[in-house]
Amino acid sequence: MMSLVCLSLRLRAAGCHGSRRSVATVVSGNKTASLVRQRLQMEVQEMRSVLSGFRPGLLVLQVLQSVLSINADPAVHGLIVQLPLDSVNPMDPERITNAVSPEKDVDGLSCINAGKLSRGDLKDCFIPCTPNGCMELIRQTGVSVAGKQAVVIGRSKIVGAPMHDLLLWSNATVTTCHSKTLDLPEQVGRADILVVGAGRAEMVRGDWLKEGAVVIDCGINHIPDERKLSGHRVVGDVHFASASQRAGFITPVPGGVGPMTVAMLMENTVQSARHFLLKIQAGG
Known about the structure:
This protein is 38% helix and 14% strand. It is α/β, with parallel strands linked by helices. β7 and β8 form a beta hairpin. α5 crosses α9. Pfam families: THF_DHG_CYH (PF00763), THF_DHG_CYH_C (PF02882). Keywords: Hydrolase, Multifunctional enzyme, NADP, One-carbon metabolism, Oxidoreductase, Signal. Pathway: One-carbon metabolism; tetrahydrofolate interconversion.
């Protein structure tokens, strides 16, 4: 599937006299997958001597070796890295996500897939699942994205940034807002389509919205609620009660974007398996 793979692993040996080591591999040609595996195995072996005796570094190597093993396993068609990485030792998530083969990166978070998305090569990459699910929800409303004013709140690599790219390549005029945006209510008020992934409970109020706007709420937050046995309830980044009075369409939390994210993950995995089978049939 890939004519060019650029896989960059930056492995830092913080405990080795304060030194830094980085390795980068660029491989092209028809035998990309096997060449990438061979080169990465050589790099991992090289780093063993550098990181020997440094426990966090060895942990990174173990994780990378696991990723390499899955990359090479033809029975596995998709690999996701659960973020944030659950470890008492700090690990750079970029090192791990970029080690995943682009052909199995069903989360669409590696630099290869993210780069292709930013360039508009939507048919030659895996699209991150939550933004892809948001686009499907927008399509289901019947509202055309082309020519609309779209506002995205949040610029994370998982939601905000790829959401901006998807809306842009669908011919919307897109504004990205974030923690430094000064006139957030004014920006939101211009939006025909609003996608929120800020991580702040019920931040967007109903009176901010343009009448009839499409509102996609990606937030998951817990707020105190004595009426619940757990002592809290789940809400989004949009104040649903007030926003639903003005929005033309709005997603609930929970039960809105979340199930679509899972559905898009399954779609990407099936797509990966299909490409693998076509490659076998072509003798690749």
